[in-house]
Amino acid sequence: MRVLVAEDERDLAALLATGLRRAGFAVDIVHDGGEALERLGLYAYDVLVLDRDLPRVHGDDVARRLVGAGSPTRILMLTASAAVEDRVEGLDLGADDYLGKPFDFPELVSRVRALRRRSARPALPPLLARDGLVVDTVRRTAVRDGRDLDLSPKEFSVLQILLEADGAVVSAEELLERAWDAHADPFTGAVRVCMSKLRGKLGEPGLVRTVQGVGYVL
């Protein structure tokens, strides 16, 4: 799952990114609305954590443009104002959720995950199961035939994407786009290495099949 944090307070942005990465998300950071729009035009983000009071291009205008373009990216708007009228205005602009500062970080993570589930068509349940494999996307746990798989955050993200594909082939490019951040080098073989480790933890019989020249399928 890929998240863009648009926050002009650099210390807060760094804290947000660190916490979201620990929760298993691939996170990029921008500090103004203009850069946010540039990134959103380049990459397919699942969720945008958007500070309302951004320089260059105001957060309200970022939300308007994103919604006007028909983007599937969900918007969680952050603001220092907790007034009801501000929340209403933010939601009317097209934000999918609204959170006042200061906030409890576990609540932020929970809201981001909920927006990601809602962004899928049809909406995804929090529990994904197939062939003895049970993945809880809220608690971030994966079990196969009663055995805890002890996946790394990246392995969990890749497995979740494969499960969500529901039998469709997922290319290495799509996995890199959705599970890694903008700094990932597409030529490092990161997807191949991660897939090898994931297969080892899933055990036998094998669940992930390589479709030569196309990608991977669960």
Describe the structure.
It is a single chain. The chain is elongated. By secondary structure, the chain is of the alpha/beta class. It has helices at residues 10-22, 33-42, 59-68, 84-92, 105-119, 153-164, 172-179, 190-202; strands at 2-6, 26-30, 47-51, 74-79, 97-100, 127-130, 133-136, 141-144, 147-148, 209-211, 215-217. The longest helix is centred in the middle third of the chain and has 15 residues, at 105-119. Pfam families: Response_reg (PF00072), Trans_reg_C (PF00486). This is Transcriptional regulator.
Brief description of this entry?
It comes from Streptomyces vietnamensis. The protein is 41% helix and 21% strand.
Pick out its properties.
Arc Repressor Mutant, subunit A, single chain, alpha/beta, five-stranded parallel sheet, Transcriptional regulator, Rossmann fold, elongated, WH-like_DNA-bd_sf, 218 residues, four-stranded antiparallel sheet
Largest sheet: 5 strands, parallel
| CATH fold category name of the largest domain | Rossmann fold
CATH superfamily of the largest domain: Response regulator
| Helix share, percent | 40-55%
Counting helices, strands and paired strands, the structural category is alpha/beta
Strand content: 15-25%
Coarse shape: elongated
Number of strands: 11
Q: Indicate the mean pLDDT.
A: 87
Just name the CATH architecture of the largest domain.
3-Layer(aba) Sandwich
Please tally the helical runs, counting DSSP H or I stretches of 4 or more residues.
Answer: 8
What distance separates the N and C termini? 18 Å
Our count of domains comes out at 2
CATH class of the largest domain: Alpha Beta
Query: Could you spell the SSE succession in H and E letters?
Result: EHEHEHEHEHEEEEHHHEE
Q: Record the strand order, biggest sheet.
A: 2-1-3-4-5
